[in-house]
Design a protein that fits this description.
Radius of gyration of chain B: 19 Å
Largest interface: A-C, 66 and 61 residues
Largest sheet of chain B: 5 strands, antiparallel
Mean pLDDT of chain B: 93
Number of helices of chain B: 12
Helix content of chain C: 25-40%
Mean pLDDT of chain C: 87
Low-confidence stretches of chain C: 1-6, 162-178
Chains: A alpha+beta (757), B alpha+beta (277), C alpha+beta (178)
Radius of gyration of chain C: 17 Å
Order of helices and strands of chain B: EEHEHEEEEHHHHHHEEHEEEEEHHH
Shape of chain C: globular
Helix content of chain B: 25-40%
Largest sheet of chain C: 5 strands, mixed
Order of helices and strands of chain C: HEEHEEEHHHH
Low-confidence stretches of chain B: 1-5
Number of strands of chain C: 5
Strand content of chain B: 15-25%
Oligomer: heterotrimer
C-alpha cells in the first residue's frame, strides 16, 4: 500500500519504452492493412444484411408481413420474430431486449425484421417492402415522471433504485454552517466510434455459426448467441476482432443476433454494418442524469453532510443500467473525501428515449461532475480557495473508502492535489482584453477498477509456443484501440528479456481463454496478475525442454532475445524449440480473480482505486459565450506505467471525450426521437478543439506491491467536465451545471453580469 | 432529347439517378427545366441532404467547370469576378483573393473541412446560404446568371430574396473592396467543421456601413439596422440594439440568445471596421 | 437517352497507378466503388456524408472524402489510397511521424488522416505553406484526443527542416510478423 511518503512523478511522452521503435502493428494500421470486421468484404458468397427499425418510439405491432419483401430482387431471406430459433431476448445483465420485436416496439431503434440481400442497394428496397402495421402508444419521454406513465415492461418503469447510507444526514445537515443545493444535468452522449457496429456471421458445415465482429467479450457474446440461435455452446464461436472503437458501445450484442439468424437461414456468410444514421438511432448511449445534490460543511470547511437524489434515464431496455446506477452512486458518495453522513440515492427508469448502457466512465463521471461542482460551491460560500477546501477533506491512504470498504490507493490523494496546485496553468491570469476571457479551474476524481461489489469477476490467459516459434500469449480481451496488445507484449518482453517480434498476442477469441469482458478498466489488472501467475511456470517448462534437447542442466539455462541462452550464448532459438521440442509441454495458463479487499465476505464498492486531478484552462468568447479549452493538465495516480504511449493515449483520449460531453455533445430526444442522426449534427471534437495536454504520473506503489498495475481506460474522463466548468467560472463568474455548456445560457449570464456592473 | 420523358422527381436509391451532361450552360438550363433536374457541381452540400432523406433527384444536371467563365478568378475595373464553379479551396488560396479580401482565408478555414472545400463551389455555397453569403451580401455581390442579359448582373441581395428557381449562376462579381474595411466572423458549435450558427459580415466602404448575416436564421442583408447605423443620428445605442434585434427576429432568428450573440458580434465588428470612430 | 443514362456507364479512371474500368450507376459513391469485393478496404465509411474524413482518398493528389465523389466525376481522374503509396516519400514520412508519436489507437480513421497529411506535404512541395493542423481539420478521431497527432505534426512534420528530429526520414519498414 502507498505510504504518505512522496511518490515518484514522471511526465509522460509517447516514446516507446526501452528505446525500441514503434510496433509493427502501428504500421499495419497506418497502411490500412489491418482488416476491421466490416472490411471483410472479400469472403466468397457474402450477403449483405440489413435491419428494419421501428417507425415509432412506442407502438403495438399489429402485423409484420414479410411476404412481399421475400420476392424483391436480390433477397435471400427475410426474418422476423417468428424466425428466431431460440430465445428472442438479449442483454448482459437483464435479458429484456428482443432480437426482433414480437408485439410491441419501445424505441425507434427497435428491430422488427432483417433481410439478407446481394447488394446494399437492394437492402433498402427489400426493407421498405416489409409491411408493418403499428398502433401508436402513448410515449414515456420524461424520466422524472416515467414511473407514473404507461409501463414499458412488466413491473413498471422503475428498473432499479438504490440508496447508500452513512450516518444520519438530517442531523448532520442541522450542524452545518453552510449548505449548498444544486441541480445537475448531463447529456445523452454517444460513443461515436469511427467504425459503426458491424461484422459477419459465417455458417459452418455442422449447423454452427462463426462470428467475426467488433465486440467487447467474445465468450459472453457466444453464450448469448447460442441461446438465441438454439445451438449448443460449442457451435457458436465469436472472434472479437480489432474494431474501430467501442468505449462501451459494443458491450451488448449489436448486429450479431440478426446476422447469425440470417446466416443460418441462408447458409451464406452475412455481413451487417450499420450506417451512421442507423447507429445514431439504434445504438447505445450514455445515461443522461438529473441529480439534485445537497452538501454541507462546518465553518472551517469540513464536509459533514451530503444528500443526492438522482434519476438516470436508461431508455427502452435495461442493458447495463443497474450497474451504471451502482457506479454512479459509488462516485456520488464522493470516494475521495471524508463526509460524516450521507444519503445517496438514485432511480433508474425506463423511457422511450433510445437505449443507454455502458460508456467509458460508466455513470461515475456524471456523478463526479456534480460532486466536484458542489465542493466549489461550498468553497465560494465560505470564501475559501477550492483547493484548500479539498485539502481539508481528502482522505488519507489509511482510511477506508466512502462505502467504508478497504481501499488501496497508489499515492496519497493530498499529494495529487498538491501537484495539481503546482500546475503552471495557474500562472497569473491575463487581464481580460478584447473578446476572450480566460480562466483556470481544477477538479479531482477517483475511480475503482473491476466490476465491483463482489460480482463474479475473473479472467484467464494462456501462453504457448507457436509452430513458427513465437511466444504466443492469448487473452479473451478485445482490442478496440486501447493498445492492450502492446502492453501485454511489453510485459512479456520485460520478463523474458526478448524482443517484441518474438511475441504474438492473440486476443478475443471465444475458443481461447476466457478473460471476462473488456470493460470496467479491468484488463490491465488481470493481465498483470495472470502473466505473473503463468510466465514463471512457462519459462520453467521451456527450460526443461531446452535441457532435454541440449543436454545442459535446466538451471543453467536462461531466457533471452529470440530463445534460450547458456552462459550468455543462445543455444536454441524459439523456432528450433518449436521444431524439435514437444510444444504441448510448453504451455501454461493461469486464471485470476479480480483483486478485492482481503477478509471481506461480501465486498462492497471497489478495492483498487485510482485518482486523477485535472487542471483546465479555458478561453470564453465574451461576444458569443463559446468556450475554447486551451490546456488540460492531468496528474494521475494509477499505479505503474507499463506502456507509456498507451497510458498517455488513454488519458488524452478520454479527456477529449469528456471535453466533448462538456461542450458540444448531446443526443436530445423529442417525443422519443433522437434528434441528431449523423456527424454533421452530433459534433465531437476536432483536432482544433483538442487542447494541449500534459500527463504527470504520480506513483507511490512500492516495488513489491502485489497490485502495481491499474487500468486507466476510464480515468481520463473522470474530472474533465467539472474542471472545465470551474475554469469557465474563473473566467466569467458564471457556474454552469447543465451539460453540455449552452453558450447561449453562458452568454446571457455574462451579459447580465456586465449590465449589472 | 425526347419530349415525352416522364419526370419522376425523386428516387429511393442512387441507382435510379440519371446524370445529364449538357455541353453548354444554355443546354444545362434547358435540361434542368425539361427534366426537373438539379444542378450539381461538387454536391458536397446536396449529398448529405439526399443521404439523410434516402431520396435522390431522379435527374442531375452536371455542371462543367470547363465552360468559359465558370471557374477561376479575374479582376477588371468592375472588381473581382469569381466563377461559380471555383472551389472554396481555390478561392481560399488565390492570390487575387489575398489581395482583395485578406480575411477570407481565415473564414474559409472554418468552412467545412479541407476535403469538402476541394469539392464545394462558390456557387453551391451561395445557393445553400453558406458562410460566403453574409460577406457577399454585405459586399453587394452581383450574380451573372445564364440567360440573363444585364451586363452588371443581378444583385445577390435581390436574387437571394426571390426564389432562385432554376437560375444557373455563371459567376459572381464583387466590387473592388481594397480600400474598404471588412470584418467577418463565424460562430459555430466547435472550432472547425461546424454547422454555422451565425456568420456576421460588416463592411465599411468609407461612407456607409453594410451588415449581413447567415446561419440558423438564413442569409440576409440587415438593411434596416444599416439604415439605423448610417442615418439614424438621433437614435441611441439602445434603440439601435432594439432595431437589430427586431430585424433579426423578423428575418427568422428565433433564438434570443443567438440574437444576443449576433448583436455583440456586430458591435465588435463595427469597431473593427472603424464605425463611429 | 433516358435508359442510356440510367444504365451503368463504364467509367475509366486511374487507381493507384493502374487504369481501371467499372460499370456502375453514375451516382455511385467512389467509396462503394473502391470497397466493392474488398479491393481498397483502407477507404472506410464513417458517416457517408463527408463529415469525418475516414474515407479520404487522394484525387489528383488532393485529399477528399470518397463518399462525396460520384462515379460520373471520375473519368480522367487519378485516385490514390494508402494501398498505393507504399513507396511514396511523403507517405513514408507521415507514416513514421504517426508511428513514432503513437498518433493512433484503433486505427480505423488513420489512413484518412495519413492522406490528409500527404496531401498537405504535396501542397508544400508546390510552394504552398500549408499548416498541417488545418490539413487534418476535417478528420475526426475518437480515440486519441489528437495528442499524438499534434506531436506528430509539430515534432516530425514541421515545415522548418531544422525543427525536424530526423525521425521523419523514410526509414525501412520494420520487421513484420508473418
Amino acid at each position: 500500500m502507498a505510504s504518505d511518503t512522496p511518490g515518484r512523478m514522471v511526465t509522460l511522452g509517447a516514446d516507446a519504452p526501452d528505446g525500441g521503435g514503434p510496433s509493427p502493428e502501428l504500421y499495419r494500421r497506418i497502411e490500412g492493412r489491418l482488416s476491421y470486421p466490416t472490411d471483410l468484404l472479400d469472403i466468397p458468397g457474402l450477403l449483405q444484411g440489413a435491419i428494419l427499425r421501428s417507425e415509432y418510439a412506442h407502438a403495438r405491432l399489429l402485423r409484420v408481413d414479410a411476404s412481399r419483401a421475400r420476392d424483391m430482387p436480390g433477397v435471400h431471406a427475410v426474418v422476423t420474430a417468428d424466425d428466431v430459433p431460440g430465445l428472442n431476448r438479449f442483454g448482459i445483465v437483464v435479458r429484456d431486449q428482443p432480437v426482433f420485436c414480437e408485439d410491441r416496439v419501445r424505441y425507434e431503434g427497435d428491430a422488427i425484421a432483417a433481410v439478407a440481400v446481394d447488394t446494399r442497394a437492394q437492402a433498402r428496397a427489400a426493407l421498405a417492402a416489409v409491411e408493418v402495421a403499428y398502433e401508436p402508444l402513448s410515449l414515456v419521454t420524461d424520466p422524472m415522471t416515467a414511473e407514473q406513465q404507461v409501463p414499458l415492461h412488466e413491473g413498471g418503469n422503475l428498473l432499479a433504485q438504490e440508496t447508500f447510507h452513512r450516518g444520519d444526514p438530517e442531523q448532520a445537515f442541522a450542524a452545518c454552517a453552510v449548505v449548498v443545493e444544486h441541480d445537475y444535468r448531463t447529456p445523452r452522449q454517444m460513443h461515436a466510434f469511427m467504425e459503426t457496429e458491424g461484422g459477419i456471421a459465417i455458417p459452418d458445415d455442422a449447423g454452427g455459426v462463426h462470428f467475426r465482429v467488433g465486440c467487447q467479450s467474445g465468450h459472453r457474446d457466444a453464450e448469448q448467441l447460442a441461446d438465441i440461435l438454439a445451438l449448443a455452446p460449442g457451435q457458436v464461436t465469436v472472434e472479437a476482432m480489432a474494431t474501430g472503437g467501442a468505449f462501451g458501445g459494443k458491450d451488448e450484442l449489436t448486429v450479431q443476433p440478426a446476422a447469425g439468424i440470417l446466416a443460418l437461414k441462408t447458409g451464406c456468410p452475412v455481413m451487417i454494418h450499420l450506417d451512421r444514421f442507423e447507429s445514431c438511432r439504434a445504438g447505445m448511449k450514455r445515461h443522461p442524469v438529473t441529480a439534485r445534490m445537497t452538501t454541507g460543511c462546518d465553518a472551517d470547511g469540513r464536509l459533514l453532510a451530503h444528500r443526492v437524489e438522482a434519476v438516470l434515464d436508461t431508455g427502452a431496455y435495461a442493458s447495463l443500467g443497474p450497474a451504471v446506477l451502482e457506479n454512479f452512486l459509488d462516485h456520488a458518495s464522493a470516494p475521495l473525501y471524508r463526509i460524516g453522513a450521507y444519503a445517496v440515492s438514485g432511480r433508474l427508469v425506463y423511457t422511450n428515449n433510445g437505449v443507454c448502457g455502458a460508456f467509458r466512465g460508466f455513470g461515475g463521471n456524471q456523478a463526479t461532475f456534480a460532486v466536484e461542482s458542489q465542493l466549489d460551491a461550498l468553497a465560494r460560500e465560505l470564501g475559501l480557495c477550492p483547493r484548500e477546501l479539498r485539502r481539508i477533506n481528502l482522505r488519507s491512504v489509511d482510511e477506508p473508502g466512502s462505502r467504508h470498504q478497504p481501499v488501496r490507493w497508489t499515492a496519497p490523494p493530498v499529494q495529487v492535489l498538491r501537484k495539481a496546485q503546482a500546475s503552471s496553468l495557474w500562472s497569473p491570469e491575463t487581464v481580460p482584453r478584447g473578446r476572450w476571457l480566460t480562466g483556470t479551474g481544477m477538479a479531482m476524481g477517483a475511480q475503482g477498477n473491476g466490476l465491483g461489489d463482489g460480482l463474479p469477476d475473473a479472467g484467464g490467459g494462456r501462453i504457448s509456443l507457436s509452430r513458427e516459434g513465437r511466444v504466443r500469449v492469448e487473452f479473451g480481451f478485445s482490442d478496440y484501440g486501447q493498445n492492450i496488445g502492446e502492453a501485454i507484449t511489453h510485459s512479456v518482453c520485460a520478463v523474458l528479456g526478448c524482443q517484441g517480434s518474438d511475441v504474438e498476442v492473440m486476443l478475443g477469441h471465444s475458443r481461447g481463454p476466457d478473460s471476462g469482458p473488456t470493460s470496467a478498466s479491468r484488463s490491465s489488472v488481470l493481465v498483470h496478475g495472470v502473466l505473473a501467475g503463468m510466465l514463471p511456470r512457462w519459462m520453467e517448462a521451456v527450460r526443461c525442454q531446452a535441457a532435454e534437447l541440449t543436454g545442459y542442466p535446466g538451471d543453467d539455462l536462461a531466457h533471452g532475445p529470440g530463445g534460450v541462452f547458456h552462459q550468455g550464448r543462445q543455444v536454441l532459438s524459439y523456432r528450433e524449440l518449436a521444431e524439435h521440442g514437444r510444444r504441448e509441454a510448453m504451455v501454461a495458463d493461469a486464471r485470476q480473480d479480480f483483486p478485492v479487499a482481503p477478509g471481506q465476505d461480501h465486498p462492497v464498492g471497489r478495492y483498487l482505486q485510482l485518482q486523477i486531478a485535472t487542471v483546465a484552462r479555458v478561453m470564453v468568447d465574451r461576444l458569443t459565450g463559446r468556450v475554447r479549452v486551451t490546456d488540460l493538465h492531468h496528474i494521475t495516480a494509477a499505479g505503474r506505467v507499463i506502456y507509456p504511449p498507451g497510458y498517455l493515449g488513454q488519458i488524452e483520449g478520454a479527456a477529449v471525450m469528456g471535453l466533448g460531453m462538456t461542450l458540444t455533445e448531446d443526443m436530445p430526444a423529442e417525443e422519443g426521437r433522437l434528434r441528431r442522426d449523423n456527424l454533421d449534427q452530433y459534433l465531437i471534437p476536432t483536432f482544433h478543439d483538442a487542447p494541449t495536454q500534459r500527463v504527470d504520473v504520480l506513483d507511490g506503489t512500492p516495488e513489491d506491491d502485489p497490485f502495481p498495475v491499474r487500468g486507466v481506460g476510464e480515468l481520463g474522463i473522470e474530472a474533465v467536465a467539472p474542471a472545465i466548468t470551474a475554469a469557465i467560472e474563473a473566467a466569467t463568474g458564471v457556474r454552469i451545471r447543465t451539460l453540455p455548456v449552452d453558450p447561449g445560457v453562458l452568454l446571457t449570464a455574462i451579459h447580465v453580469r456586465e449590465t449589472a456592473s | 432529347m425526347q419530349p415525352d420523358v416522364t419526370v419522376q422527381p425523386e428516387v429511393a436509391g442512387r441507382g435510379g439517378v440519371r446524370v445529364l451532361r449538357p455541353e453548354s450552360p444554355r443546354e444545362a438550363v434547358t435540361m434542368a427545366r425539361r427534366f426537373g433536374g438539379t444542378y450539381v457541381a461538387g454536391a458536397s452540400w446536396l449529398q448529405p441532404v439526399w443521404e439523410r432523406r434516402q431520396s435522390w433527384p431522379s435527374c442531375l444536371v452536371a455542371l462543367d467547370p470547363g465552360w468559359p467563365g465558370f471557374r477561376g478568378i479575374d479582376q477588371d475595373e468592375g472588381g473581382l469576378t469569381i466563377g461559380a464553379l471555383t472551389t472554396l479551396d481555390e478561392l481560399a488560396s488565390h492570390p487575387l483573393v489575398h489581395d482583395h479580401l485578406p480575411g477570407l482565408g481565415t473564414l474559409l478555414d472554418q468552412v467545412a473541412g479541407p476535403g469538402v472545400r476541394r469539392l464545394g463551389t462558390v456557387g453551391g455555397n451561395l445557393c445553400a446560404g453558406g458562410d460566403l453569403s453574409a460577406l457577399f451580401l454585405a459586399l453587394d455581390a452581383r450574380l451573372h446568371l445564364v440567360g440573363h442579359h444585364d451586363p452588371k448582373g443581378e444583385s445577390l441581395v435581390v436574387w437571394d430574396a426571390a426564389d432562385p428557381g432554376v437560375d444557373l449562376i455563371q459567376s459572381v462579381t464583387l466590387p473592388d473592396a481594397r480600400p474598404w474595411r471588412i470584418a467577418v466572423d463565424k460562430l459555430g458549435h466547435r472550432e472547425r467543421f461546424s454547422p454555422t450558427r451565425a456568420t456576421v459580415a460588416c463592411v465599411h466602404d468609407g461612407e456607409r456601413v453594410r451588415l449581413a448575416v447567415c446561419g440558423e436564421g438564413g442569409p440576409g442583408r440587415l438593411s434596416i439596422s444599416e439604415a439605423a447605423l448610417n442615418d439614424g443620428h438621433s437614435l441611441s445605442g439602445a434603440d439601435r440594439i432594439q432595431i437589430l434585434d427586431t430585424e433579426l427576429e423578423f428575418r427568422g432568428w428565433q433564438d434570443p440568445t443567438l440574437r444576443l450573440a449576433i448583436q455583440r458580434m456586430v458591435d465588435y465588428l463595427l469597431a473593427e471596421v472603424g464605425h463611429g470612430v | 437517352m433516358n435508359d442510356l443514362y440510367r444504365a451503368p456507364e463504364p467509367i475509366t479512371f486511374e487507381l493507384n497507378g493502374k487504369t481501371v474500368t467499372r460499370s456502375v450507376p453514375a451516382a455511385t459513391p467512389l467509396l462503394d466503388l473502391l470497397r466493392e469485393d474488398g479491393q481498397c478496404t483502407s477507404v472506410r465509411p464513417g458517416c457517408r456524408i463527408g463529415r469525418c474524413g475516414v474515407c479520404n482518398v487522394l484525387m489528383d493528389g488532393q485529399a477528399m472524402p470518397a463518399c462525396l465523389i460520384m462515379a460520373w466525376q471520375l473519368p480522367g481522374r487519378r485516385v490514390e489510397t494508402v494501398e498505393g503509396l507504399a513507396g511514396d516519400p511523403d507517405f513514408l514520412k507521415v507514416r513514421q511521424a504517426l508511428a513514432e508519436e503513437s498518433a493512433l489507437q484503433c486505427g480505423y480513421c488513420t489512413p484518412g488522416f495519413a492522406l490528409s497529411l500527404v496531401s498537405g506535404l504535396r501542397e508544400r512541395r508546390n510552394g504552398n505553406p500549408v499548416d498541417l493542423g488545418e490539413a487534418i481539420a476535417g478528420n475526426l478521431c475518437r480515440c486519441t484526443g489528437y495528442g499524438g497527432l499534434k506531436r506528430a505534426v509539430e515534432k516530425h512534420l514541421s515545415p522548418c527542416p531544422s525543427m525536424s528530429t530526423g525521425a521523419g526520414n523514410s526509414n525501412p519498414i520494420p520487421g513484420e510478423p508473418e
